[in-house]
């Protein structure tokens, strides 16, 4: 069974064990998926309300985008686990001779880029989901706007967590040009996404207050 198909209890128990997956990457993807799902829920509750008549198309767009990102992030729970396996095997390769050391390093470098690919996508998808919450905060009924705040906080946690998984892989990759490009792109999304998330959360608190 795929990790994304586990019950909450099964996933948590597996996470708490000594097994290598799921780990921080899977948790980041799950947190992002939950944050995106909350956006869809809020839009579903707000669509068609008297205050927002004429905004049905925008609410539906938010629902569609949020569900798409939710599903992409859920798929990354399994992709991240699958991508870690070849890297884990590479660390166990023999390195007794110069030839073995060179082959191990070659396999490791390739495995690190594969392992980083999931978290990189997580950062991108979560960043997109945070921008959806930025739109949603002005299109939510007050009755459920606390869930916009909950959703954006989940996404902020996912953004930081996913980026940590990018960083840990970048630190061991020898391709400096690749590392610089990925790090700059992800760091920019984290900085902007975090700023947007804080702005949305503070607006929710202000509305509730």
Task: Describe the fold and architecture.
The protein has 209 residues and is an all-alpha fold. The protein has a single domain, classed as Formiminotetrahydrofolate cyclodeaminase monomer, up-and-down helical bundle (Four Helix Bundle (Hemerythrin (Met), subunit A)), CATH 1.20.120. Helices cover 79% and strands 0% of the residues. The chain is elongated. The mean pLDDT is 96.
Offer a quick outline of the entry.
Helix content is 79%, strand content 0%. It is mostly helical.
How are the SSEs placed, and which strands pair?
Blueprint: H1 8-16, H2 24-46, H3 56-91, H4 98-136, H5 146-170, H6 176-208
State the main characteristics.
209 residues; 6 helices; Four Helix Bundle (Hemerythrin (Met), subunit A); mainly alpha
Give the structural class: mainly alpha
Overall mean pLDDT stands at 96
CATH architecture: Up-down Bundle
The domain tally reads 1
> How many beta strands in the DSSP annotation?
0
The outline comes out as: elongated
Low-confidence stretches: none
**CATH class identity:** Mainly Alpha
Query: What share of residues is helical?
Result: over 70%
**Major sheet:** none
Give the termini separation: 45 Å
Radius of gyration: 20 Å
CATH fold assignment: Four Helix Bundle (Hemerythrin (Met), subunit A)
Order of H and E elements: HHHHHH
Number of H- or I-type helical stretches: 6
CATH superfamily grouping = Formiminotetrahydrofolate cyclodeaminase monomer, up-and-down helical bundle
In what range is the share of β-strand residues? under 5%
């Amino acid at each position: 069974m795929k990790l994304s198909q586990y019950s909450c209890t099964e996933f948590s128990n597996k996470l708490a064990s000594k097994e290598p997956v799921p780990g921080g990457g899977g948790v980041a993807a799950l947190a992002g998926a939950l944050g995106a799902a909350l956006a869809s829920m809020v839009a579903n509750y707000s669509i068609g309300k008297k205050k927002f008549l004429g905004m049905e198309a925008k609410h539906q767009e938010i629902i569609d985008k949020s569900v798409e990102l939710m599903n992409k992030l859920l798929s990354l729970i399994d992709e991240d686990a699958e991508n870690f396996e070849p890297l884990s095997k590479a660390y166990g390769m023999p390195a007794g001779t110069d030839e073995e050391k060179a082959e191990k390093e070659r396999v490791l470098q390739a495995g690190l880029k594969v392992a980083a690919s999931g978290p990189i996508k997580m950062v991108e998808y979560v960043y997109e989901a945070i921008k959806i919450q930025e739109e949603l905060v002005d299109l939510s009924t007050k009755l459920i706007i606390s869930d916009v705040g909950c959703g954006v906080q989940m996404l902020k946690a996912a953004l930081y967590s996913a980026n940590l998984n990018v960083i840990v892989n970048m630190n061991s990759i020898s391709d400096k040009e690749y590392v610089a490009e990925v790090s700059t792109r992800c760091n920019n999304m984290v900085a902007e996404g975090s700023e947007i998330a804080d702005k949305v959360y503070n607006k929710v608190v202000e509305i509730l207050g």
